[in-house]
Request: fold
Amino acid sequence: MKKLIGFLGAAACVGTMQTASAGDITGKITLKGTPPPAPEMPLKADPFCGKIKEVAAAPGNPRMPFYVVDKSGGLADVFIYIKEGAKAAAPPAQPVVIDQVQCQYTPYVVGLQAKQKILVKNSDPLMHNVHPQPTVAGNKEANKAQPANAGPLEFVFDNPEVFLRFRCDVHPWMFSYVGVVDHPYFAVSGKDGAFKISNVPPGDYVIEAVHRKTHPNGKGITQKIKVGADGAKADFTVELPAQ
Ligand SMILES: [Cu+2]
Reply:
């Protein structure tokens, strides 16, 4: 009898592990081709941004972060998310935070769950104006001045939208692109183009990779994948738009 109970216990344990296990989706985004040089942000010419210590000390203006590519072709700032097959989930209580530093939004691309709070900080000694510009019905536009030393501004968007753009009306080069989805299965590629979407339940999915310049309408490249207990791999190659 003891033996039998032991056997059943082990079987139950294995069964639980199989149903509860979740895998990571990992991969790399590679850009094909050499992007044209991006325009400069005219920070030095701005009467306030130009006086920020780091901006004044820099030899030139930074360029717009349109294509951030490493030597291997790895493309950063690509938003990768499960487009089909994921269950909607309640948002985490913790907010996503973006900041304004040296008259630029950072990060440039970030992911967020619908109904999750997003806080926008101002670390600069000058006034910015935070202007999210949603295009999906039900997501509210806002336009708020944020003087130096003001506390963070809080926004919530109820519906998925890739990308929802934040801009600053004071500094027309300032943008941040937010990928809003209704579940936690998303990632933004890093400087080497790599990404990881963690803890995805086993199943069949469609995932999409969206880069804000090569896919300006928010429609990226999709791929069908099967996630098993040991996860799945999904690489993408992004092509430059025709010039
Ligand atoms: Cu600004």
The longest strand covers residues 23-32. The first helix runs from residue 2 to 20.
